[in-house]
Design a protein that fits this description.
The complex is a heterodimer of chains A (about 1000) and B (about 425). With about 1000 residues, chain A is of the alpha/beta class. Chain A is built from 25 helices and 42 strands. In chain A, helix 16 crosses helix 18 and helix 16 (about 720-745) runs parallel beside helix 19. The chains are: A alpha/beta (about 1000), B alpha/beta (about 425).
Chain lengths: ~1000, ~425
């Protein structure tokens, strides 16, 4: 005991209030000790003291324990069994920070930054902004946080890509200086450019490239002395700070992780509440996550037709969302909870309790709001628990806060904030009423303790709400004939009332007996703690589990080999381990498999082909297909933004397509890097990529790159004519050449010389162009008219590289001989024309003419709809110009494989090649043919029969969740049905943020 | 003087020659009549611009001297003209060139607007459409609440006046959407309930009340009201562009109340859901393009392909259209969309019917065209192979009003130049 008091004294001397600011008046520096007794104190998630006492002085906790001696002079509050928790910490807030505002719209595009000073060239990159410099305590917002139990927030300017730093502040009424606990607590990042009106970046991949280049530039900046830039300095200064990266979509986790990996950074994620969809990724990445509790409201499902607008994906996410916090905890992922993102901040505790009902333990819930955020911020010695010496930030609640407790008070830095007044008095009971007017009348006060209701059987049979504030009671009747004010004194209520004539009378209410309060039997809610199972992907037609590699013996099929064997009639094909094992007119499967470990498919009257490859596709891309904000955007990569959950993948599998080149759009002469994927429905973005495939890049010519059809005001970006387009290419490649040279020079220096030299600045854009010069990256160029096609071949010839593919290439037939000579292939539309001036001379005979001239020719889609029936488009080459069936078929299989450098293992039915196989009901070029099965790597990715079953399963799942939703009581405000519109990209799709 | 004489002489000669023209006989072709029937070995003659004999060559005796020309078609196919309804063909040339777009007038309510007079009979696009068997099109304005009036055109003629088959055949209304999409097309947000739905319907209600009142009592000429007269006396069709089930239901009820009888649903994505009403009230549907994406991510992948077969089974009168992106130049593919419906269950001749006689019936021109039947206008073509399959669609001859048309087009010319 002596020791304990000594410790208390020690703390007292530590905190002696001293004011920096001059006081207007006399100083009020006496700090009493507050003692909170008889409380259930939850010191930390795992430590709870019953019937304990908490002592605070100034802004600190000086002691906490059971059986504490209370120092003389303490202000004592008997909490009578109430609960004390450490108050919560929210790491994702913009409290007290001025909101960034968007500049007025200008019809003229803005390509340059409008900011003055030595800052980053892009307005969305402002790491130099510190929230601390414009922080101002805001009582109103503070109140919202305090009522939800928060005492401390990390606040920042939620705007831009490199957003700057956030400051950790207390929510007390003290001065801004006292409230600020950490000036620069963490730096913040996102992919959204926010209020910036500068064109770049206009896509997600543009944001990613911008972040990567900024980090590279900051590193380079520190090695040079020629220029000053406050943004790069800020990036370098923030190296040691926690870095919080806010995601928009759950697919962003892997995108950010790739950046983290590249620059050896650790991030803390700010999530979107759908972490349950990518839980395995999060386990692998093992960065902490800050999650919101913005569970979707239930939809109004009363009208069945309107309910059809709600996708099964939305329904499934609605069901799973409240399980999200529990799922993270179960998987041992370090996470914090933020109140950010709630439509109504008052819902916070309600949503938190829902998460608890859905499997989040009290311990994990409290940790995610206290100790985890404290340790992430490195302030676990000050905040997060109620140990001695910590800041006096705690909440007092009527009961367990994760179940039903009402917050009475939230103390911050030792200052009391009343949230809701505790009703100390219980006036409910049977009374006898006496006044001059009435004698010995019986009345009853019943109802809720803090909201009692009075019944006057002698005046009015209704029970009337009675106002109760402390021990002041206001009783009245609805007709206004009796209105009274009284005070509870022991077992009496004494006061005055006014009758309808306006006369005042004194009255007394004598308590006869206490009300027998019926203990409500708490209904045990039937709660299922098992989270719903995710499909792959978690939407209609998603797989319950991924298809496995099959060993199959196809018997008696018509096989379109695309090899010198041509079309084999009545022949057999064997696939195993994802590869084609054998193809011949007769095969004995027992020679290839032991123990009948294979499946036999009788393909009599059916046709087998290799899968369709779409050379030009824009499906499965997240948030923008064009980074058209600059004439050259070689630094952006479609590979960063693959969306593996796009349902067009499944639709195209149903049309026999197995692989696609996902291309950047055609908004600028040098676009971005492509991704070449197989349509592995159900797999992640990374797994869809075809391993070791060559790198490709999109170039473009003509109307789109010169912005001809962008409206009258888009005439500021160079180039605006075909003449300018040529110069963009020469300029880019000459820049790339000198860049290559300067690196070579630098790399040839000795170690000692290198130390003295400033290295060249690593430029992601020029890196990609150098790869082209080195024949390590290959061009697919959007093109229409002969003049520009010829031009680009001249540029390439002069730079010693080859244009791999001209895509669209609608006037290719006019320069087919030159293309063949140059070595370029062509990937064209079957019959599109008349949509732009430059396609006036596009003719459907193009494919045939190119093919006849000896150019490797493919037919592509550039369209999600056409991508699911490219077999029909290939057949048009027969109609227009008379290509043979065999050659026409190659235009959507072997030839695109050649153009994409995949033909060594794809594009034909040949021993050793990938088992990307399609089974057709008849000749695949016939309009009457249908896909029966599609295999990718020997896995059955589409199957007509399974498709029928999935439809039934989907409907059953839909009805199951609709039933749950109809019964849902957790959500009182019902959502109107909403539907996500299909997001379809073409080359011309300009912006997407 | 001399020149004038020669000119007159030529004119007379030509006239005489035409007048003296005897019928042409097509023998041996596989005739797809358009009404669901097929004659494998047909004898078809045309006389004075119309079909005369239409018979099974095995069953009749033919006098060869009665014909000027006899064309043997053994193994080849004869089809009535494919008809593309609901298209901007001829009133747009190059989508991206504003000066060439003549299909969308400003103002929102334009019942008086007529596509007819903007029709370019020498459109380069049209020439490439005919070569695939499409010889008739319903040229239709777009946009607004009431887009205007369509006219049905033969795809041959020196000017719109000569090319017209049926002038101002109907008025097109875009029934308000009960749902709308937020955001913009590259970055669409969620689709929400359209709060202005009833307001828009109120607007329509005012328009039709006024038009009905005008129909029975007006003394002065009001262009908009005058153009709507035909809806009440039955001389014009009302084309209601609507897709959702509730919109179709609302629209039908709305116009029934105004006693507008010749209703046609255009689009009809949800037609199956309201099939009972369509059957009961005998309302036909011009379907959306078959080659489209399913309605939503939850929809079966073959939903658009299988719709025709299902409507056929329900007994609903429908035809195919090609409305949507690049609809003018893409109209030449309408036959292949009919082909796709066959892969998904429709019988071949029924698929042919869905782009010939059904279309003619719905547009109200089936007494003139739509099938190969005696006395009907001889607008038809001959394909060396199955015209619904890309592989074999090869139009060798085509006739409009009994006259053979030139099947050349600038794409063929370029092909011949560069091949």
């Amino acid at each position: 005991m002596i020791l304990r008091i000594a410790v208390i004294l020690f703390f007292c001397t530590q905190i002696f209030a001293q004011n920096i600011k001059p006081t207007n008046g006399v100083s009020e520096n006496y700090q009493p000790i507050f003692a909170f007794t008889n409380a259930n104190i939850i010191i930390s998630p795992n430590t709870k003291l019953e019937n304990a006492t908490l002592l605070i002085k100034g802004n600190r906790i000086i002691a906490v324990d059971t059986n504490l001696e209370i120092p003389v002079g303490s202000i004592v509050t008997n909490l009578d069994g109430d609960y004390i928790y450490p108050s919560f910490i929210d790491l994702y807030s913009s409290y007290g920070v001025e909101k960034a505002t968007k500049a007025a719209y200008n019809y003229r595009p803005q390509y340059q930054t409008s900011k003055s000073g030595p800052y980053h060239w892009n307005e969305a990159v402002h790491p130099e902004i510190s929230a601390s410099s414009n922080f101002k305590t805001n009582e109103k917002t503070a109140k919202e946080y305090l009522s939800n139990g928060f005492g401390t927030v990390l606040t920042h300017n939620k705007d831009g890509i490199l957003r700057g730093t956030g400051t950790l502040v207390s929510l007390s009424q003290k001065s801004d200086s006292e409230n600020m606990l950490l000036t620069d607590g963490a730096s913040f990042y996102s992919f959204n450019k926010g209020v910036s009106r500068q064109k770049n970046p206009s896509s997600l991949m543009g944001s990613i490239a911008l972040i990567r280049q900024s980090f590279l530039d900051a590193e380079w900046y520190s090695q040079q002395t020629n220029q000053k830039n406050l943004s790069y300095e800020a990036i370098n200064e923030q190296e040691k700070l926690p870095k919080i990266f806010s995601i928009t979509n759950e697919l962003d986790y892997n995108r950010i992780f790739k950046i983290a990996d590249e620059f050896e950074l650790d991030f803390i994620f700010k999530g979107n509440g759908k972490e349950f969809l990518v839980i395995n990724d999060l386990i692998d990445i093992s960065f902490p996550v800050i999650i919101p509790l913005s569970f979707p409201d239930s939809y109004d499902v009363s009208n069945p037709e309107a309910t059809d607008w709600i996708s099964l994906e939305q329904l499934k996410n609605w069901e799973s969302a409240p399980f999200n916090p529990g799922i993270l905890a179960t998987n041992n992922i370090q996470f914090c909870i933020t109140s950010d993102g709630l439509k109504n901040s008052k819902d916070f505790l309600k949503k938190l309790r829902l998460a608890v009902k859905k499997g989040l333990s009290h311990v994990d819930a409290l940790a995610s709001l206290t100790t985890t955020p404290a340790s992430i911020m490195g302030i676990e010695d000050k905040l997060g628990t109620l140990n001695q010496g910590m800041l006096a930030n705690f909440i007092i609640a009527s009961d367990n806060i994760f179940e039903r407790g009402t917050i009475y008070e939230n103390w911050t830095l030792g200052v009391q904030n009343v949230i809701s007044e505790k009703q100390l008095f219980d006036i409910r009971g049977h009374y006898t009423f006496n006044s001059k007017e009435f004698n010995n009348k019986k009345i009853i006060i019943e109802g809720n303790k803090s909201k009692p209701k009075t019944t006057f059987p002698f005046l009015d049979t209704n029970s009337i709400l009675t106002y109760l504030k402390g021990d002041n009671v206001t009783i009245y009747t609805n007709d206004g004939n009796f209105r009274s004010t009284g005070k509870l004194i022991k077992d009496k209520i004494i006061g005055r009332y006014q009758n309808k004539e306006g006369e005042y009378f004194n009255f007394s209410l004598q308590l006869d007996s206490l009300l027998q309060v019926k203990k409500k039997v708490e209904k045990k809610e039937d709660i299922n703690h098992t989270p719903p199972v995710n499909w792959l992907p978690n939407k209609s037609f998603g797989f319950n589990e991924l298809p496995k590699v099959k060993n199959i013996y196809f018997k008696n099929a018509t096989i379109w080999t695309n090899e010198k064997e041509g079309i084999l009639i009545n022949s057999d094909l064997i696939i195993a381990n994802g590869k084609i094992i054998a193809v011949a007119s007769f095969l004995d499967p027992n020679e290839f498999f032991t123990d009948n470990l294979f499946e036999t498919i009788d393909a009599t009257d059916l046709h087998l082909t290799s899968g369709i490859i779409d050379e030009h596709s824009h499906i499965a891309i997240s948030r923008g297909v064009n980074e058209g904000s600059q004439a050259v955007s070689a630094e952006v990569r479609i590979g960063d933004v693959i969306n593996p959950n796009d349902h067009n993948i499944y639709r195209q599998l149903a049309g026999g397509t197995v692989a696609s080149q996902l291309l950047h759009g055609s908004a600028n002469p040098i676009g971005g890097q492509s991704a070449i994927i197989k349509l592995r429905w159900g797999s992640s973005a990374e797994k869809m990529k075809i391993k070791n495939s060559d790198g490709f890049i999109k170039f473009a010519l003509g109307e789109n790159v010169k912005q001809s059809n962008w409206g009258s005001f888009e005439n500021e970006r160079f180039p605006q004519t075909r003449m300018g387009v040529e110069q963009v290419f020469y300029d880019a490649f000459y820049r790339a050449k000198s860049y290559k040279k300067s690196w070579k020079k630098y790399n040839n220096l000795s170690l000692k010389e290198k130390r003295k030299a400033i290295p060249p600045r690593e430029d992601l854009e020029l890196n990609a162009l150098v790869e082209i010069l080195n024949s390590q990256r290959f061009i697919t160029c959007h093109s229409y008219v002969q003049s520009e096609i010829n031009m680009l071949m001249h540029v390439a010839d002069s730079m010693n590289f080859t244009v791999n593919t001209f895509t669209h290439i609608l006037e290719g037939y006019k320069v087919a001989d030159k293309m063949r000579e140059h070595g370029a292939g062509g990937s064209t539309f079957s019959d599109w024309w008349a949509y732009k001036f430059e396609v006036n001379e596009a003719i459907p005979y193009n494919a045939t003419l190119l093919h006849n001239a000896g150019v490797v020719t493919a037919i592509n889609s550039d369209d999600a709809e056409m991508g699911r029936r490219l077999n029909q488009e290939a057949a048009k080459a027969i109609k227009y110009g008379g290509t043979t069936e065999e050659e026409a078929w190659k235009m959507v299989t072997l030839n695109p494989a050649k153009l994409l450098h995949l033909d060594s293992h794809m594009g034909s039915i040949k021993e050793g090649k990938d088992a990307d196989i399609v089974l057709w009901s008849s000749n695949p070029l016939s309009v009457y043919s249908r896909v029966i099965q599609t295999y990718v790597d020997g896995k059955l990715m589409f199957d007509l029969e399974r498709d029928r079953k999935l439809r039934k399963r989907d409907l059953k799942e839909r009805m199951r969740i609709i039933k749950l939703m109809s019964e849902d009581k957790n959500s009182n405000q019902k959502n109107k049905p909403k539907k996500i519109k299909e997001k379809l990209y073409h080359c011309d799709t300009e912006y997407d943020e | 003087m001399m020149n004038k004489f020669i000119l007159t002489l030529i004119v007379i000669l030509i006239t005489i020659n035409t007048m003296a023209q005897k019928p042409i006989l097509f023998i041996g072709g596989i005739a797809h009549i358009g009404n669901g029937e097929v004659i494998e070995n047909s004898a078809i003659s045309i006389k004075e611009g119309s079909f005369d004999i239409v018979a099974d060559a095995n069953l009749i005796r033919i006098d060869p001297t009665a014909f000027d020309t006899i064309i043997k078609l053994y193994g080849k196919h004869i089809y009535p003209s494919f008809i593309v309804p609901n298209t901007t063909l001829g009133i747009t040339e190059i989508d991206a060139v504003r000066a060439s777009r003549d299909f969308n007038e400003i103002g929102g309510v334009n019942p008086n607007i007529r596509s007819l007079i903007a029709y370019n009979s020498d459109s380069k696009i049209t020439k490439t459409i005919r070569t695939n068997g499409v010889l008739i099109a319903q040229v239709t304005p777009r946009g607004g609440l009431v887009s205007g009036q369509s006219s049905i055109m033969f795809l041959e003629g020196n000017n719109w006046e000569d090319a017209a088959l049926k002038v101002d055949d109907g008025i097109h209304i875009n029934w308000p959407n009960s749902y709308y999409t937020t955001g913009w097309w590259a970055e669409p947000g969620e689709t929400k309930e359209n709060k202005k739905y009833s307001k828009k319907i109120y607007e329509l209600n005012r328009l039709f009340s006024k038009a009905k009142s005008y129909y029975s009592s007006s003394e002065i000429i009001d262009l908009k009201m005058e153009s709507m007269r035909g809806l009440f006396n039955g001389s014009k069709n009302l084309y209601i562009h609507a897709n959702s089930a509730n919109e179709i239901r609302d629209a039908i009820e709305f116009f029934e109340n105004f006693k507008v009888n010749n209703l046609v649903i255009v689009g009809g994505e949800d037609a199956l859901k309201v099939s009972n009403i369509l059957v009961e009230k005998n309302i036909p549907v011009i379907l959306n393009r078959v080659h489209r994406l399913p309605k939503s991510q939850d929809s079966p992948v073959d939903e658009p392909y299988i719709q025709a077969k299902k409507l056929q089974d329900k007994g609903i009168l429908f035809c195919l259209s090609y409305e949507g992106d690049m609809e003018a130049m893409g109209a030449r593919n309408i036959a292949f969309t009919a082909g796709t419906t066959i892969a998904y269950g429709l019988k071949y001749e029924k698929a042919v019917q869905s782009i010939t006689l059904n279309t003619a019936k719905i547009l109200g021109i089936d007494h003139l065209v739509g099938s190969i039947q005696s006395n009907k206008n001889a607008t038809f073509f001959i394909s060396s192979g199955d015209a619904l399959d890309m592989r074999s669609n090869n139009v060798e001859k085509a006739y409009i009003n009994g006259k053979e048309i030139n099947l050349n087009n600038h794409q063929k010319e370029l092909f011949n130049k560069y091949k």
